């Protein structure tokens, strides 16, 4: 399975040490992390920089395994002409929380409030993954990060959410309904 690494919109797979790629997925609303080591070409004409967007995907299926921003770059010389760059990256949740929410919402659909937060307080994120889980009572947010506002509404609606590697906000019910049993014969039914 071939891996493709793009930095700031340019494919940098030939500069990446593919065996160094490490992706750590956490609870998605808390963010995922990646680390990768790049090497410069000879002579050094390119270097990754903190703030660059990074996408790690597989070429066979074009599936993104990580998308985010390089947070830290440590430069180490390999020799006089070649450098290695150890990069620590955070997924798009960091970018999602760049501005704070200061807004009061009346009783409304949770999906409508979430979509307004994304459209008003973030840039470049899609709301197409937000499920409508019904109305919620009045909400007041006094300078909280969008992720904190999402956590508050998700707690009310018993939902989960995360920002996927394509910058689409996913919001969905955490409850899986089990079909009710119409009758139980305690003499013959087992496995409960």
The percentage of residues in β strands lies in 35-45%
Helix content: 10-25%
Tally of separate helices: 3
Give the integer mean of the pLDDT values. 88
Helix/sheet category: mainly beta
Elements, N to C (H/E): EEEEEEEHEEHEEEHEE
The stretches of 5 or more residues where confidence is low (pLDDT under 50) are: none
Strand order of the largest sheet: 2-1-5-6-7-4-3
Which geometry do the CA atoms define? elongated
Taking Cα atoms only, what radius of gyration do you get, to the nearest Å? 22 Å
Number of strands: 14
Query: How widely separated are the two ends?
Result: 43 Å
| Major β-sheet annotation | 7 strands, antiparallel
What would you note in describing this structure?
- Helices cover 15% and strands 43% of the residues.
- The protein is mostly beta strands and 192 residues long.
- β13 and β14 form a beta hairpin.
- The longest helix has 12 residues.
- The mean pLDDT is 88.
């Amino acid at each position: 399975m071939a891996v493709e690494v793009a930095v700031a919109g340019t494919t940098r797979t030939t500069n990446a040490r593919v065996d160094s790629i490490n992706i750590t997925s956490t609870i998605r609303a808390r963010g995922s992390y990646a680390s990768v080591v790049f090497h410069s070409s000879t002579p050094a004409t390119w270097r990754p920089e903190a703030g660059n967007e990074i996408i790690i995907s597989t070429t066979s299926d074009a599936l993104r395994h990580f998308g985010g921003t390089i947070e830290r770059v440590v430069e180490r010389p390999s020799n006089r002409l070649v450098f290695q760059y150890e990069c620590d990256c955070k997924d798009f949740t960091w970018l999602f929380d760049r501005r704070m929410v200061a807004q009061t919402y009346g009783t409304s659909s949770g999906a409508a409030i979430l979509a307004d937060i994304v459209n008003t307080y973030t840039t470049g994120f899609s709301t197409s993954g937000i499920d409508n889980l019904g109305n919620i009572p009045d909400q007041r947010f006094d300078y909280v990060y969008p992720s904190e506002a999402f956590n508050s509404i998700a707690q009310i609606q018993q939902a989960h959410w995360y920002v996927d590697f394509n910058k689409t906000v996913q919001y969905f019910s955490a409850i899986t309904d089990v079909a009710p049993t119409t009758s139980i014969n305690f003499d013959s039914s087992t496995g409960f």
